Fold this protein.
Amino acid sequence: MYKAKRFGWLIAWPLLLISGVAFAGWDDVNMRQGVTEISRRVYELHMIIFSVCVVIGVVVFGAMIVSMLMHRKSLGVKPAEFHDNTKIEIIWTVIPIVILVVMAVPATITLSAMYDASDSDIDIEVRGYQWKWQYTYLDEDPAKEIRFTSNLLTPPEEYNNLAPKREQYLLDVDNPIVIPVNKRVRFLVTAEDVIHSFWIPDFAVKKDAIPGFVHEAWTVVEEPGIYRGQCAELCGAYHGFMPIEVHAVEQDEYDAWIEQKRTEALAVYETVGKEWTMEELMAEGERVYLQNCAVCHQANGEGLPPAFPSLVGVGVSVGLMDDHIDVVVNGVPGSAMQSFRSLLNPAELAAVITYERNAWGNDMGDLVQPMEINEMIEAAQ
Ligand SMILES: [Cu+2]
């Protein structure tokens, strides 16, 4: 009786553990179940293995604590004197082996299902950059490929504590991934600069994005909704600023989105991607020049020296193409000649540069394609 009272708490704490099942916030502290078949299997696996660990923990620590307390010296217990007990040693080796093997079976089945990325309906290339993701919806026809970058929306004021934080703080982006529900989507994960990791907990998808390697992951989302993830690899100062946002939508909504993205991509392909002729560049170049450059350099190109230099017969306009491109794209720091990189699109830049080299009797006879300008700008980023 005396002992039972003193060690009542021994019985109390497992009860406390069990009563925890009824604890309302249990889902918040447990691993999330996610929204895909795989994520639910991962969750179940976690629960099975977690329970096995709890039982082992209770049995091992229980036996340890009970024997330490019940057989302590102050109770006058005499220690048993024996070495080696082959029977016990065999038992405590065999039981853990059996437990490990039993746990390995469901774990291996789930893992091999996760790794089987075959037979996909949609292939999306995922490319990690410091610090953003780029997504490409792959297609056999390159003109139909859709590529966009997905940037953090949360402004610096919020993470510098100068403004109140939004609900989706550091978790929202300008261009989310859009996928249809009930379709097998394959992610081909890679990186451009350093190692990143593409992690969407609700899908049980987590793959390292490593430059030069392509890792596969897949998912089938059943419920429409917005799902969020993050880069899960320490990839530099703004590692926390490259979240992942996935919109799972009904098939018709997805089709409409794809259609719109394709039209946009085609428009860019048609202006920037195609070969331009000298006539096209000169016509477009004149328009761009009169609209953006003539205020300073004058319609006849002669400028207003010394404030605004002449472009006729002198300087980069009749010099090396690369120097010319550099001035127009990047501007001349500290002067009124600003950078036109983001003010004009690559086609407009190529046209105005070609125009300056061939108008007003400059007659250089050379031209630059929008594609070349585009590549230079992308490479410099
Ligand atoms: Cu990263």
